[in-house]
Design brief:
Blueprint (H helix, E strand, L loop, with lengths): L1 H16 L6 H13 L3 E6 L7 E5 L2 H13 L3 H8 L3 E3 L11 H10 L3 E9 L2 E10 L8 H22 L8 H25 L3 H15 L3 H9 L11
Helix pairs in contact: 1-2, 1-6, 2-6, 3-5, 3-8, 7-8, 7-9, 8-9
């Protein structure tokens, strides 16, 4: 109980100290290694039907993991948001772990041996996920798991408070950034790839993801190059 009380107190301090320079979501990610004994954490946000997109990441490793999930459209974060249940992977290299074959190998190569994803939700409404990773395999045990749920609750509060602070009908600037990223940049590129390949939107987005995955680049960068006509996904280049 004392340990959980300390975690609550620390999270309360984080939420109270949040400002424009260091928003609450960023502070929560940075504090996760101390609060839950993990190596790093990221918070992603769901926008419409899109794969959750990263809001904040504590380090380059978890940012790479987030990019892999965006590129492949699969992984613990995506599953947690889709199913509304925590996804706990204490050993990503375990023989029986075959849920995300397009993601797991590269996540291991990035330095993640264990992954834990918690949906951020209010009732049945799922707005994002808290992702945590460890450089060593091993489960979240006992109090660690309880603390992780507390951190996920705080992240949900911070996310909803951020939106609630805006006038009715007006999106918070962060949500607008996500909307611009996915609906404008990637959707523009998807439309161009549809024309190049003569396929539908789902097929074009799959091709974008596959190219980004093969080139080990964020899908946003690939989309930007497609829109700028620096690359074509039908094999031709300018």
């Amino acid at each position: 109980m004392n340990r959980q009380r300390n975690v609550w107190d620390r999270l309360t301090e984080i939420l109270q100290a949040a400002d424009e320079a260091r928003p609450a979501l960023e502070r929560i990610c940075q504090a996760c290694p101390d609060l839950v004994r993990v190596s790093g954490a990221a918070i992603s946000v769901r926008g419409g039907d899109a794969v959750p997109s990263t809001a904040y990441a504590s380090d380059a490793t978890v940012q790479r993991i987030e990019d892999l999930q965006l590129m492949t459209g699969s992984g613990p974060c995506v599953t947690a948001v889709d199913e509304g249940q925590p996804v706990l992977v204490p050993d990503l290299a375990a023989r029986g772990e075959t849920r995300w074959p397009g993601f797991s190998t590269d996540a291991l190569a990035a330095g993640a041996k264990a992954l834990f994803a918690f949906p951020l939700q209010v009732g049945s409404v799922r707005v994002g996920a808290l992702d945590m990773y460890r450089q060593d395999a091993g489960p979240l045990e006992g109090q660690e798991l309880a603390d992780a749920f507390v951190v996920a609750d705080a992240a949900t509060v911070a996310l909803l408070d951020k939106q609630a602070a805006r006038p009715a009908g007006e999106l918070d600037h962060y949500w607008w950034d996500l909307d611009s990223f996915y609906r404008v940049e990637v959707h523009q590129a998807t439309g161009m790839v549809m024309a190049q390949l003569g396929t539908d939107a789902a097929g074009a987005l799959t091709r974008l993801r596959a190219y980004a995955f093969a080139e080990e680049r964020p899908i946003s960068e690939v989309a930007r190059d497609v829109v700028a006509r620096r690359i074509r996904l039908d094999g031709d280049t300018n």
